[in-house]
């Protein structure tokens, strides 16, 4: 049996980060998104990246009160995707890109300007996340615990480290490893150029 | 000026390690260390980049909500991809099945002649009664080969194929010309070893003491595969058409009352 969720239910589910709602959105929105991306020189990886980015934008937006939709959630979601994709193309290919908008609603209701999350920032997040996942398991956990501001003594207990000094030393080396991984990532130079500071 | 020199002399005492970047961004350096570090940053663009990267990384790592959301979205995407993977496997399985079916059809089409021969042979085994009722009792009976020689793999070139067709078969070769039963039937033609031009009919004639017992002629290729088997023959002769038979070596057998009488060979050239 296929369940259909209303936009309100989906938004509430997204606010609570419910996996089944994200799955529903993936099932419902990705075919349209895929069609759009494939027609505009993208591939499957771009579709997945863009879906993730748009979900983050939608999530952040949904937390801002009041959040009133003037169109369907799907249209809103697609307008986020299209805006992000446009910016990505412009940045990546440095081309003036004319998007082939196929939105049936009278106007685009989403603008990146009113969002703290720009396309570059989203892509940067993905770069960080990708490299965070590539870290050894203990490193990843240690960094996560550290960033949650869990006391060092508690981290030492959770991670079975003998001393608190070792927690710090290990954390430094893990962070250093993560930084090196990011800096060695070919995509990194879009964001971190030595001459920019 | 002097102060700067003194400062730089003091600063050179420090050795920057990778943890300094973390400590700088977390404001854990003391004033002297911070000054020294900032001096170094001004001189070293890579260090500057790393510090900036670390600051942004910290911001990213502290946004627990977004990290959790990214984790969930990734797991949803992976799950969907696994589903697609399963679909791909199913497609591959369907393709393999299709290939097997195509192969089976090919096999049936190519091997069918032999099966058909078998069925003809079986049919013949049941036919004597019908033949005895007057259908086969005519002077000369013309018998057409049922099919061509059984298939040979297609990869073999034409000349190899032809040479293969002339290779003698040791088992039959030993028996060529020997007569196993001569008391009731004597073969007149052809000779035990004959060379015939392909397409020219071969006449088999024999004298039988008991005309009520049927004679049958079996033709095999040089691999011992049945090319055709005649129906039960009651007259003293039969003509075998060689038209359509590929060039090569063939062995024939004369069967009388279902017992082997003689084996001979003929070369179609």
Question: Can you characterise this structure?
Answer:
The complex is a heterodimer of chains A (197) and B (269). Residues 95-110 of chain A have low confidence and may be disordered. Chain A has 197 residues and is mainly alpha-helical. Chain A has helices spanning 7-15, 19-39, 44-63, 73-93, 119-133, 137-147, 152-159, 164-184. In chain A, helix 1 (7-15) crosses helix 2 (19-39) and helix 1 packs across helix 3 (44-63). In chain B, helix 2 (19-25) packs across helix 4 and helix 3 packs across helix 4 (45-62). Chain B is rod-shaped. Chain B has eight helices and nine strands. The model of chain B is unreliable at 115-139 (pLDDT under 50). Chain A binds chain B through residues 17, 19, 22-23, 26-27, 30, 48, 51-52, 55-56, 59-60, 124-126, 128-129, 132, 143-144, 147-148, 168-169, 171-173, 175-176, 178-179, 182-183, 192-197, and chain B through 18-19, 21-22, 45-46, 48-50, 52-54, 56-58, 60-62, 64-70, 72-77, 79-80.
């Amino acid at each position: 049996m296929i369940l259909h969720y209303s936009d309100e239910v989906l938004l509430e589910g997204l606010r609570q980060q419910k996996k089944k709602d994200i799955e529903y959105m993936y099932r419902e929105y990705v075919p349209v998104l895929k069609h759009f991306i494939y027609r505009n020189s993208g591939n499957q990886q771009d579709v997945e990246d863009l879906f993730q980015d748009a979900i983050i934008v939608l999530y952040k937006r949904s937390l801002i009160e009041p959040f009133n939709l003037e169109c369907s959630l799907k249209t809103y979601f697609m307008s986020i995707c299209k805006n992000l994709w446009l910016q990505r193309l412009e940045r990546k290919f440095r081309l003036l890109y004319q998007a082939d908008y196929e939105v049936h609603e009278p106007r685009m209701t989403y603008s990146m300007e009113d969002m703290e999350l720009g396309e570059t920032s989203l892509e940067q997040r993905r770069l960080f996340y990708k490299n965070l996942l590539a870290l050894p398991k203990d490193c990843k956990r240690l960094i996560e615990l550290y960033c949650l501001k869990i006391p060092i003594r508690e981290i030492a207990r959770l991670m079975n480290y003998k001393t608190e000094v070792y927690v710090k030393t290990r954390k430094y080396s893990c962070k250093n490893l993560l930084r090196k991984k990011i800096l060695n990532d070919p995509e990194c130079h879009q964001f971190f150029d030595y001459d920019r500071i | 000026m002097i102060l700067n020199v003194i400062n730089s002399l003091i600063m050179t005492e420090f050795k920057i390690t990778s943890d300094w970047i973390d400590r700088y961004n977390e404001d854990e350096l003391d004033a002297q260390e911070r000054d020294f570090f900032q001096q170094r940053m001004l001189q070293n663009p890579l260090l500057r980049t790393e510090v900036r990267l670390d600051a942004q990384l910290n911001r990213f790592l502290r946004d627990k909500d977004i990290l959790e959301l990214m984790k969930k979205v990734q797991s949803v995407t992976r799950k969907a991809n696994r589903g697609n993977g399963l679909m791909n496997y199913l497609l591959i399985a369907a393709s393999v099945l299709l290939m097997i079916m195509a192969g089976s059809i090919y096999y049936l089409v190519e091997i069918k002649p032999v099966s058909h021969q078998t069925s003809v042979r079986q049919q013949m085994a049941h036919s004597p009664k019908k033949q005895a009722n007057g259908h086969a009792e005519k002077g000369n009976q013309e018998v057409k080969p049922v099919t061509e020689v059984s298939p040979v793999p297609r990869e073999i070139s034409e000349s190899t194929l032809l040479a293969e067709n002339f290779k003698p078969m040791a088992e039959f070769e030993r028996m060529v010309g020997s007569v196993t039963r001569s008391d009731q039937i004597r073969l007149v033609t052809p000779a035990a070893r004959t060379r015939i031009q392909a397409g020219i009919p071969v006449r088999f004639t024999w004298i039988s003491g008991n005309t009520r017992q049927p004679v049958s002629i079996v033709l095999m290729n040089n691999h011992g595969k049945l090319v055709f088997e005649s129906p039960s023959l009651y007259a003293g002769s039969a003509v075998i058409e060689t038209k359509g038979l590929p060039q090569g070596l063939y062995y024939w057998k004369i069967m009388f009352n279902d017992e082997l009488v003689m084996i001979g060979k003929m070369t179609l050239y």
